[in-house]
Amino acid sequence: MPELPEVETVRRGLEPAMVGARFTKVAQRRPDLRFPFPERFSERLEGQEIKALGRRAKYLLADLASGEVLVMHLGMSGRFLVTQGGTTRMPGEFHHEHGGLGTHDHVVFQLSNGATVTYNDTRRFGFMDLVPRSEIEASRHFAGMGIEPLGNELSGETIARLFEGKRTPLKAALLDQRLIAGLGNIYVCEALFRTGLHPEAPAGSLVTKKGKPTEKAHLLADIIRDVLTEAVEAGGSTLRDHAQVDGSLGYFQHSFRVYDREGEPCATPACPGTVARLVQSGRSTFYCPECQKRSRA
Length: 297
Fold this sequence. Notes:
six-stranded antiparallel sheet, alpha+beta, four-stranded antiparallel sheet, 6 helices, Helicase, Ruva Protein, domain 3, 22% strand, N-terminal domain of MutM-like DNA repair proteins
């Protein structure tokens, strides 16, 4: 599933084509994706200007002049293609020919600026919804969702407040979308490695007896932002069939220090450790047993 940096990369690619344009025609080619489309989906979009394109966790949010928000989620394999003049492109010099109507092109947005934005989703785990802006935070998509990891709200103090008294393994706590929204398996593994924290250490170990953040809590907050920012700048980390909005691949996977490197030498200079893998809640966790000892939490 695309993680936060991949979704932010897609948002940045769509923004120049969509913001300020109107939907002139919306072709909805099936009644549902993961969920049914909202009633009168095409009718409610056509003629509406896109005022802004934002992101909340792993969701894309297109604010419309009507006061509604087009909520979009990529699911496992969803992607957008921006087409003009028969060429699918992104800002910059990357170009490739688009193969035309595909079997899995489920929604096609024709825009007033001449662009065509196509939503393609092989597995159909993505979805779209329309929600009034005034109700967005209370909607089924965002009610109870935690803070954004990219932003000033994430800090050592925030981590201490969220994790105080928790015996939950640290990795599980970081993946809990009710606490911090948008963090996924890849980037949590990378952030824990860079911070030197064991994924099975209790989340509450980052909090002192007086409820204050430890030095590692402050460091973890900074490193989470660093890892996500680096990944966004690199275009995300493409896994399997997920691609950027222009169809090209993300390249942060070349910077992985532990993720999917089981059995390889630790990337830390002079460390004698070997990257190991353990399974937590059915998901693979990669870490260095030498750099990330539980006693160091």
